[in-house]
Design brief:
alpha/beta; Glutaredoxin; single chain; 6-stranded mixed β-sheet; 5-stranded mixed β-sheet; globular
Length: 739
């Protein structure tokens, strides 16, 4: 009985403690009462649809018993007041503003159930008519991230300047967009796969059946179609699909593109054959998204081009929409493969034979475009020359850069363009004030780099005076798919890149592909605040350093090639002088010079980075030894792309900045050719330290054992030799003292 009393006493104490905690959470303090008075009261099922009837809205669904909601509330008040001040309480510009609300899911449980709220706090973006347009999935939820989410949704969903002919409401799901997106069935898809379509078709493959998703309910809202609430990624993808139609409306209106969707659960055999088995399973992963294929007509090769990027991994909806629409646009352009004038290709890409000098302020250069151009000789071309081009459409579509594929027979214009670029770069652009005659145009070096047979393949880039050339001495080389693809993958990056969270894996690949990349590649990071004058200085700095070091790198390769060729010819001359066998002379002539201009040895990738984003990049890349507080706008960091080292000072200890581009070029020469060692980017992780320390401990132990054994043997030997003669043997016994 005494034990029972003690148990009851403990239970009463715990019950009282829980009641106290519940009251503390449920009843806000005086300070929290003040915060509640600064925001509108929560919406309920009675007024939710009426308030959200027009315009855009950011809504937080919360529970008063949720600790995370309680922690977020002061920030939510700050978010509300910040946007009230920015937009104005009576702002007339409804297309560029949004209202902010809350919903208490304890008081309005039915409403939260209708909206499919699964956790708290959940922040959503709604359009007119209570249409769900997006959900905030990023953490942490603070003033900056919430503003970023809301503004990004506004950019995506509001009426853009080039859409004056379209009512903004047409962008909102619930209204059929052009009535173009149609469900297709198995028979029609099989004809498309066989290439019988006359218009390119962009088809999305869904993990649904025809009863779950069809022409009647595809545009339904989140809470009107159960499939959207069951699988969280399907509703955002539907919105993305609609937005992509809007962005590609010109192609649709000109009958150059059609949109369709296909249900894999109703047609599992077809989807499994296409490699989409995961879309046919009865229980699918919550993170699964539809897959996309662009089917081209037979007239353009009849290729099925797959969109291989994962939509749900993009940083935001705007980025995902841009990725899919731009991928579609450039794939359609790449599939045409018509004979074009080279000047038209230049104009489209923005490549030139002249660049602005230091101090020039004009329009900001778009460095994004890259083109691979097959150059045919009209007098000798044959149909086999172009066979490889249709095979290259898919791998080029897979690249994350803005890469295009063209063909031309304007070979004289191409050769003149290459020469003009090289002369401009060598004789003018890479000289700052003082003309260095040793750096001038070298005819022999130019011919060594550009000499090739036709058809030839070149790479031209916007904002660049350097165009790589695929070296080919026989026509079979340019028809070798793997060799050409290797050339493309080595050169597809723009001359200058923007380093962001989304682009970091492209600029710093997680693994080294030794067939494509070299361990000696470098990334040059320049910090900018994007102010016009400062940005133009950053732009010139990156461009100058890239062009001068590229010229120096090519000259180093040329000198080594020339030296090896001279040695080869000397050897052949010696064999002939000694009247060697003709087979030996032929073997000597066939010896390859294993140095190429098309490898990525010491290749440089200049990138610019928002100074404010440096800590975020350092954290994402896990560069634990890089201290962001040491750097400011205009500073420069040279990163070893694959070996985890960096340089932010020259060998004299002077900080790298954009003020002295020659200083950075000099450092690059010493790092590349004299192997100047950099500083480590990362601390060793625990997993790396354990084997390292274990190895050191084993090494120390083995050394100790070896020394100890040696000393023991030496002691025995000394004792053994005591009292003996020079030979250590007793003459009478003819044996050692210790035998």
């Amino acid at each position: 009985m005494p034990q029972m009393k003690h148990i009851l006493l403990v239970c009463w104490i715990l019950l009282g403690f829980n009641i106290g905690i519940s009251q503390a959470v449920a009843k806000p303090s005086t300070g929290e009462d003040d915060l509640h008075s600064r925001v509108p009261p929560p919406l309920t099922a009675t007024d939710f649809d009426k308030v959200l009837e027009e315009g855009f809205h950011v809504v937080e669904f919360f529970s008063p018993y949720c600790p995370h909601c309680t922690q977020l509330f002061p920030t939510w008040v700050e978010f509300y007041e910040y946007n009230q001040n920015m937009n104005g309480k009576n702002s007339k510009d409804k297309s560029n503003s949004f209202q902010i609300h809350q919903v208490d899911c304890v008081a309005s449980g039915d409403l939260c159930e209708r909206e499919g709220i699964q956790f708290y706090p959940m922040i959503r973006f709604y359009g007119a008519g209570s249409k769900l347009l997006g959900s905030m999935t990023t953490n942490p939820k603070d003033l900056d991230t919430m503003n970023e989410f809301a503004n990004e949704q506004i950019i995506v969903w509001s009426e853009s300047e080039d859409d004056d002919d379209m009512d903004a409401s047409a962008l909102i799901p619930g209204t059929p967009l052009y009535n173009q997106n149609k469900m297709i069935k198995a028979g029609e898809l099989l004809k498309i796969i066989e290439g019988e379509n006359t218009v390119p078709k962009l088809i999305s493959f869904w993990p649904t059946s025809e009863s779950e998703l069809n022409n009647q309910n595809f545009q339904n809202d989140y809470n009107q179609n159960k499939i959207f609430s069951y699988y969280p990624n399907l509703h955002p993808f539907r919105n993305l699909w609609n937005l992509s139609m809007k962005k590609l409306k010109n192609f649709i209106n000109e009958d150059k593109l059609e949109f369709n969707f296909f249900n894999c659960k109703s047609n599992p055999e077809i989807c499994e054959t296409l490699g989409f088995k995961s879309l046919t399973e009865s229980r699918i992963s919550p993170n699964l998204s539809p897959q996309v294929i662009l089917y081209l007509p037979k007239t353009t090769g009849g290729n099925a081009i797959s969109y291989k990027l994962k939509i749900n991994e993009f940083h935001n909806l705007n980025t995902a929409v841009k990725s899919l629409t731009h991928w579609t646009q450039r794939t359609l352009i790449n599939s045409e493969l018509e004979d074009m004038k080279f000047q038209d290709i230049q104009d489209f890409i923005g490549s030139s034979t002249k660049l602005s000098r230091k101090g020039s302020i004009g329009e900001i250069t778009d460095y994004s475009k890259v083109a691979f151009v097959q150059v045919n000789d009209p007098e000798s071309e044959v149909p086999e020359d172009d066979a490889i081009l249709s095979r290259l459409i898919q791998p080029i579509a897979d690249l994350k850069s803005d890469v295009y594929l063209f063909r031309t027979t304007d070979k004289d214009a191409v050769m003149k363009f290459l020469r003009d670029q090289e002369e401009q770069m060598a004789n003018k652009y890479i000289h700052l004030g003082v003309q260095d005659t040793a750096m001038n145009f070298d005819e022999k070096m130019f011919l060594s780099r550009t000499h090739t047979t036709f058809p030839m393949m070149i790479c031209i880039k916007s904002g660049s005076l350097y165009s790589p050339v695929f070296t080919s001495f026989m026509s079979k080389h340019i028809r070798d798919y793997n060799k050409v693809l290797t050339f493309i993958k080595r050169n597809y990056m723009p001359t200058i890149n923007h380093l962001t969270i989304d682009s970091k894996d492209q600029i710093f690949p997680p693994t080294l592909n030794e067939r494509i990349n070299s361990r000696t590649e470098k990334v040059l990071i320049t910090l900018t605040d994007f102010q016009p004058k400062q940005y133009f200085d950053v732009e010139f700095f990156m461009s100058f350093v890239f062009h001068k070091f590229t010229f120096l790198n090519n000259r180093d390769k040329f000198n080594r090639i020339d030296e090896k060729r001279s040695m080869k010819y000397d050897k052949v001359g010696e064999l002939r002088a000694n009247k060697a066998d003709s087979d030996d002379i032929i073997d000597a002539l066939r010896e390859k010079v294993d140095i190429s201009y098309t490898t990525t040895d010491n290749q440089l990738y200049p990138v610019y980075l928002d100074t404010k984003k440096l800590p975020e990049i350092i954290s994402a890349m896990k560069w634990s030894k890089l201290d962001s507080s040491r750097y400011t706008t205009g500073d420069v960091i040279l990163i070893d792309r694959f070996n985890g080292r960096y340089w932010d000072e020259d060998d004299s200890g002077h900080k790298l900045t954009i003020e002295d581009p020659q200083q950075t070029v000099g450092l690059l020469e010493k790092v590349s050719y004299k192997k100047l060692k950099g500083k480590s980017l990362k601390h060793l992780s625990l997993f790396a330290k354990v084997p390292l320390y274990s190895f050191i401990a084993i090494l120390i132990f083995m050394t100790y054992r070896a020394v100890r054994v040696y000393l023991q043997k030496r002691t025995v030997y000394i004792e053994k030799m005591k009292g003996l003669g020079i030979l250590g043997v007793c003459p009478e016994l003819e044996e050692s003292k210790f035998d």
